[in-house]
Amino acid sequence: MREHGGSIVTLDFDNSTQAWPFYDWMGVCKAALESVTRYLARDLGRHQIRVNALAAGPLRTMAAKGIPGFEKFESTWGQRSPLGWNSEDRTPVAKMACVLLSDWSSSTTGEIVHVDGGYHAMGAEVASEPPD
Predict the structure, then answer these.
(1) Model pTM score
(2) Cβ proximity of 6 and 50 under 8 Å
(3) Which residues on adjacent β-strands are paired with residue 114?
(4) 48-58 pLDDT, tens digit each
(5) C-beta atoms surrounding 51 within 10 Å
(6) In angstroms, rounded to a whole number, what is the distance separating the alpha carbons of residues 132 and 130?
(7) Which DSSP helix (H) or strand (E) runs through 53?
(8) Which domains does the chain have, with CATH numbers?
(9) Burial class (CB in 10 A: 0-12, 13-18, 19+), 11
(10) What is the C-alpha separation between 58 and 66, in angstroms, rounded?
(11) CA of 55: how far to CAs of 5, 16, 38, in Å?
(12) Euclidean distance between CA atoms 99 and 93, whole angstroms
């Protein structure tokens, strides 16, 4: 990669701005991964190597089975995401990974790209009824 450049993509979960219930130490590890992504972007950029993180919404995977309470994420994510979310469909995440690995993102590095149906952009859910 040092001779011809390239792209590195890490798989993240949006955890740098909030602490998620049930995610515990995995959240700490993912926050560290975001930092490593930025530092690698800085250090490898001179070799034309891009480093980005892909922050996916919850996906039903083998890794998800190890997260106690995963089904609570899964059950509410689609309701709060403006575009909806299907934890069984890995296609949107795979497509963005292809973009980040391609030369279509030739000037993008050190980013955390969210593929979560827009969930990350929504504010806190309020328990009261909206005004009429």
Answers:
(1) 0.83
(2) yes
(3) 55
(4) 999 999 999 88
(5) 24
(6) 7
(7) strand 49-56
(8) 6-117 (3.40.50.720)
(9) middle
(10) 13
(11) 23, 11, 14
(12) 10
